[in-house]
Amino acid sequence: MTEVFKTPPFLKAGDTIGVVSVASKLDRERFEQGKSIVEEEFGLKVQAGDHIFDHHFNYAGEDEVRLKDLQQMLDNTNIKAIIAGRGGYGTTRIIDQVDWTSFKKNPKWMVGFSDITALHAKIQSIGYQSIHGPMMVTMTNEQLSTDSLKNALFGEPLDYIERGHSFNREGNCKGAIIGGNLCLLAHNVGSSADLDFEGKILFIEDIGEYYYNIDRMMVQLKRAGKLEKLSGLIVGQFSNSKENSTLFGKTANEIVQEHTAEYIYPVCYDFPIGHEDENRAVRCGEVMELNVTKNQVSLKTQTPYV
Q: Residues in the active site (predicted)?
C-alpha cells in the first residue's frame, strides 16, 4: 500500500512566501531577479529572512542565525511557503535543531534542491510533502522550469513528457516520489530523517562529484537496502562529474546502470532534474506515474488536486 504524505495548502495569488538562506551565502543580485519573478509572474508577496545576506566563511551566516531565520518562517502563520535562497552546504548542520511543532499545526511548502534535500528528507520523515525545484538564484534560468514551480505551488497537476535515453529500462510504475541530491541522500541513511524507499519512485542528481564517489554513494544506498524495492528510478543530471588522475572507467549513468542491473523496475536517465537550467519541479511525497520507453519518458501526477 502506498505511503500517504500530507499535502500543505496550495497557494493563491496574493499569498506571502518566505525566503531563507540555510546553506551557503546568497548573492543579492540573483536574489532580486528571483524575487521579481515570484512577485510579477507568480503574483505572490516575498518576505525575506532577517539574515539572508549574512555570511560566515562559506555559510550564509553562522549556524544559529540560519536556524533562527528558518524557525521564524516555519512558525509564522502568514507565510504560506518557504523558498530557499540557494543551496551549497550547511543545511544538515542545523536540521536536527528545528522545532516542527508549529509546522505540523500549519504546514507549508518548502522549496529548493541540492543541499535542501536534507530539508525535504526531514519533512518527508515526519509525513509531509515538499517541493524539489528551482530556488531564488536559479529561477531565471529556464522558463519551463520556472513555470513548473508555479504549477507545483498552486496545486496544478504536474505532467512532464521528456526525451528518452538509450540506457532507459522500459516499464510503467506508480508510487510516491522522493529523492534529490545523491550525496545528501547517501548521508541521510541512518539519520533521524532516514526514509523508507520501498514502493517509491526515487530521483537522484548531483554536481561536481568524482566518478568514484558517485559509485561509493550508490554502493551505500544499495548496501542500506534502499535500491532493492523501489517502484521506479529517475536518474537526473550529474553535472560536471570529474575523473581522478587514474581513470575510474565509468560515467555516472553507467555507474547507476551497474548498481541497478539486477532489479526489474523502470529506470530513466538524464531526466531534467538537477543543477542544469532545466530543473522540473516535483512535489516530493506525491503519488506519480512514471512511464519509460527508449524514446520518451512521462511523469505525471496520479491523483490531480484540481
A: 114, 205, 275
